[in-house]
């Protein structure tokens, strides 16, 4: 009787997870294996090619533009991930102190940019930073001494795109942090206040340790997203020099869709996949070890 009950439970469990497994195999595992296979060929984007084995990978390590793309992607990650997490937490702490409809309005104001499509963000900021009539050129001129075509000036390009990305995506981080802060019982703060803890001690000894799992989640999500940066960099570089500001996904796009080098594009995509997996696992282990220390 017990054995038949267990078999029925296993059968029910398999029926429930079968659709997910099927979708996962078709939409992730199979394309990943095909990408890996394609990286060992000289195939175009559509069609068959000849096997070249490790020739694409040898070419990859000697490719100057690939090294530039890796550097720019890493630079963009440094510009955005930690600031995005820190700013999101700071805003969430301030919003969490508000009450009622005021909190709802302020939270909606911070979250609103996140729901905008990238094309709207591009057009908005291109107008704001326009060299002739952009409103943001006034403070740039005030502090820098002259107006700057930020999307045509290489040292300004990635930092400005990073700033726009933080403005655009930070609302999602704020939402996650707000959810984490609301899970902290007010009784803990009341007990600490009775013991004489000040605001800084409340944050450092209570809020920060308890919000750490959410912080680790937000940091991991941001790392993966910014390693895959493409839309903003591609749009803001239109009409200018794209190679000095090339990022990895943009390089994949160029090789696959503009130069019809499907095999080499798959090689770059495989390298990016390995990079994202390695850094994500490394970050997860570091954050997990730090969480255990707490």
What does this structure look like?
It is a single chain. The protein has 294 residues and is mostly helical. It is built from 12 helices and no strands. The longest helix has 37 residues. 26% of the residues are buried. The mean pLDDT is 89.
Number of helices: 12
End-to-end Cα distance: 47 Å
User: Total strand count, please?
Assistant: 0
- Give the overall form: flat
The chain-level mean pLDDT equals 89
The secondary-structure element order is HHHHHHHHHHHH
- Portion of residues in beta strands equals under 5%
Low-confidence residue ranges: none
The helix-and-strand class reads: mainly alpha
Q: Major β-sheet, in short? A: none
Describe the structure using short key phrases:
294 residues, flat, mainly alpha, 76% helix
Short description:
The protein is mostly helical. It is built from twelve helices and no strands.
Topology:
Blueprint (H helix, E strand, L loop, with lengths): L1 H37 L16 H7 L2 H33 L3 H12 L6 H11 L8 H8 L9 H29 L3 H9 L4 H29 L3 H6 L11 H11 L3 H32 L1
Helix pairs in contact: 3-7, 3-9, 4-7, 7-9, 9-12, 11-12
């Amino acid at each position: 009787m017990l054995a038949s009950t267990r078999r029925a439970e296993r059968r029910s469990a398999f029926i429930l997870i079968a659709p997910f497994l099927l979708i996962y195999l078709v939409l992730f595992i199979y394309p990943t294996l095909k990408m890996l296979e394609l990286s060992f060929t000289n195939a175009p984007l559509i069609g068959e090619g000849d096997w070249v084995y490790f020739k694409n990978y040898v070419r990859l390590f000697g490719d100057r533009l690939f090294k530039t793309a890796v550097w720019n992607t890493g630079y963009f990650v440094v510009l955005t991930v930690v600031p995005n997490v820190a700013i999101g937490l700071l805003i969430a702490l301030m919003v969490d102190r508000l009450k009622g409809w005021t909190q709802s309005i302020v939270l909606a104001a911070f979250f609103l940019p996140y729901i905008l499509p990238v094309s709207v963000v591009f057009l908005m900021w291109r107008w704001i930073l326009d060299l002739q009539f952009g409103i943001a050129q006034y403070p740039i001129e005030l502090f820098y001494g002259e107006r700057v075509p930020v999307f045509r000036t290489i040292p300004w390009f990635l930092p400005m795109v990073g700033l726009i990305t933080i403005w655009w995506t930070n609302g999602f981080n704020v939402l996650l942090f707000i959810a984490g802060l609301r899970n902290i019982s007010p009784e803990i703060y009341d007990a600490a206040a009775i013991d004489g803890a000040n605001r800084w001690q409340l944050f450092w000894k209570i809020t920060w340790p308890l919000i750490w799992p959410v912080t680790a989640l937000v940091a991991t999500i941001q790392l993966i997203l910014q390693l895959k940066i493409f839309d903003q960099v591609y749009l803001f570089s239109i009409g200018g020099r794209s190679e000095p500001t090339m990022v990895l996904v943009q390089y994949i796009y160029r090789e696959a869709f503009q130069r019809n080098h499907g095999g080499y594009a798959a090689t770059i995509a495989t390298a990016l996949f390995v990079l994202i997996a390695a850094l994500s696992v490394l970050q997860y282990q570091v954050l997990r070890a730090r969480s255990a220390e707490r």
